[in-house]
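User:
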Amino acid sequence: MAPAAASGGSSLPSGFAVFTTFPDLLFILEFVFGGLVWILVASSLVPMPLIQGWVMFVSVFCFVATTALLILYIIGVHGGEASWVTLDATYHCTAALFYLSASVLEALATIQMHNGFTYKQYHENISAVVFSYVATLLYVVHAVFSLIRWKSS
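Assistant: Predicted structure:
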């Protein structure tokens, strides 16, 4: 399970090699934690609709885009072209920035929860914040290694 950038390879994997190469293995964790953020924010009461609307947009957008990229990589649509390496790096950098902004805003919304919210609702929002920061970290790590792969291509 050698990193693609460290082993000299600069192309994207295809087929089930996506599940055995780093950073592409992170797709699975991004999928899981992004889905958890989506579920938790959707199930919680919304104290600040504008802020949590952005969090929902980011989580749904990244969930759908990550799923689409994962499926396209498994199918092998990229054909080893360098433009897909650029797309991969660009997407993960954008997703990392989006998730960072969503994490900070979700934390702000959770901190500002006051009267009228139960203990359970507060904890749902705390869980959403934690999973959002985990997803941010995953996207940042994936972005860094995608940029290394892009630089070596």
